[in-house]
Amino acid sequence: MPSLADLLARAQTSLVAGDSRGCLLACDEILATQPQHPEALHFAGLAHAALNDRAKGIDCIRQAVGSAPTFAAAWSNLGSLLMDEGELAEAEHALRTAIRHGQPSFTSPLYNLGNLLRHQGRLTEAEDAYGKVLAVSPHHHATLYNLASTLQEHGRPDAALALAQTALRLAPQHAESAFLVGNLLRTQGRLAEALAAYDTALASDPGHAACHTNRGNLLSEQGRPLEALAAFQTALNVAPHNERYASNLLCALHYVDGITPEALLDAHLFRDQRYGCPEPRPAPPRPSRTGQPLTVGLVSADFGCHPVGWFCLPLVEGADSQDMRLVLYSDRLNEDQNTHRLEQAAFAFRRIRECDDEQVAEMIAADGIDVLIDASGHTGHNRLSLFANRAAPLQASWAAYVGTTGVAAMDLLLADACQIPAGDENLYRERVIRLPVGYVPYAAPPYAPAPQPRQMGVPLTFGSFNNPVKLSEGILQQWALLLGNVPSARLLVKFRHLDDPATAQHLRMRFAAAGGDISRLDIEGGAPHAEMLAAYHRVDVALDTAPYSGGLTTLEALWMGVPVITMPGRTFASRHSLSHLTHLGLAELCSQDWDDYRAKAASLITDSARLSRYRDTLRPHLQASPLMNGAGFARHLSQALRAVWEEA
Fold first, then answer.
1. What stretch of H or E contains 329?
2. What would the pLDDT profile of 515-558 be if each residue is shown by its tens digit?
3. Alpha carbon distance 11, 88 (integer Å)
4. Is the pTM above the cut of 0.85?
5. pLDDT, tens digit, 9 for 90 and up, residues 225-252
6. 588 Cα distance to chain centroid
7. CA gap 10, 40 in Å, rounded
8. How far is CA 446 from CA 230, 310, 311, 337, 338, in A?
């Protein structure tokens, strides 16, 4: 007859070998004579859990620690199993008990405690637990990776990067470590290094859809829209049911030279057919609001120092609550001074970052929202799924996206006659509502410096402060031809992504390939917003981009006294500057074709008197215009929405 020691050894050996049933047989022999034997109960519990009978496994290990209250390994495994079952409070107690009774070298419960605390958002406590593991085992790869992820979530990217790079050196084939390194490098603007890290991750795991997606975002930031489009398509091929990846693809299409509004409509309709809500809630009746204010909700992740935030500020601060009550549903992660201004001005401000669609829909119903406006479209952290399932009686898209959302339950698209000219309504799924004085208002930052007279003796300078993703091959060719027509001029391109030397060099190579003289191309990276605006002191004429026009960028140039030459196309995205300039009475800056674009720019930059007039008058002209009349814009929006509301 085998001894107790032999049976325990057999149970352990079987468990390690994956023979859970053999382990249970050995444990049963022990428990038949010693039913409270802690080690046998512990092994039996682990074996039951391995056989997917987790409840039986937990019960056995509970009995084990009941028989041996200082049995650290059993407490640790009990905590791990309880974590998997979502019993977090009891799991935490078990893990802390294991830590109290275990040797300092026993780090397993500390590691699992760190995971539990991180899951609960208790990041400081999680850091402490992981740190204690590393004090004993400094090369514990999983702990290094998880601590790096925790520090990233805690807003400490530099410390996170150092740990993630160490984790990657220890496990070069671990795709998640390389992915994390890439994400952290990207947030620091080190785009070429981040791209290399993403490629390392994909070499180990070609099916890493999130990595393909982030790689696509990075390629966009480097001004490589076609390569970005391919990366987004690969992500969607890997994860075909992920509607967010489909949205990324749609966003990228707007930057492609030659894209047509017909092709964009087809792509958006296909996305909604595949991912949209098949049976949205029916639209409830619209009660009369005669003599009462409409209650209008705005949903966005960009209520802050973001183009959407700058467009929303004059609307929200100018709205009369006796006419239209604005309730903001903010999905923003990093709040700032604009967020707080919007919160103070809104009729109500709801934070929905931690809420699912059903919870937000309940808020919207409780707030009595009549009209719900989406201000994200297919951009990051959007809530289009909320709209697709019909969260309000009347739903509209405005400000953030560049055309149709394709969503069947999106009733309206708010635009103007410049963004969507008469006759183009069939290019948008939503009903087009044209606002009379521009499709968005503008609030200038209070810290913007005043325009300054041009300095004598400095070269004539064209400029573009647009995101490099807007610098298509076509626009670079036009700029190269323009510089050829004005031999004394230079071109300044400035944006934060261009801090990365490899990204700046890539732009130089693309400009040279387009026929441009790179010795006359000045590239600058990012700066605090006030300093970036001050850089317009060195620009004589701003050049708009295509096929994706400047929106906020154009308004900022005008605010700084710099005229903008634009060439609108047929797509919504190509017509932002046309709208702004038209409503400012500056149609002379809008071109009929590319020959006209180059001719207007060349003529203007050599006309010092005209440039001086623009420098002196553009800001006061903009300030007095409907584009900066938030109260007027709010009235026009309210009137437009009320007219549609009362049709029912």
1. strand 324-330
2. 999 999 999 999 999 999 999 999 999 999 999 999 999 999 99
3. 29
4. yes
5. 899 999 999 999 999 999 999 999 999 9
6. 36
7. 11
8. 41, 11, 14, 11, 11
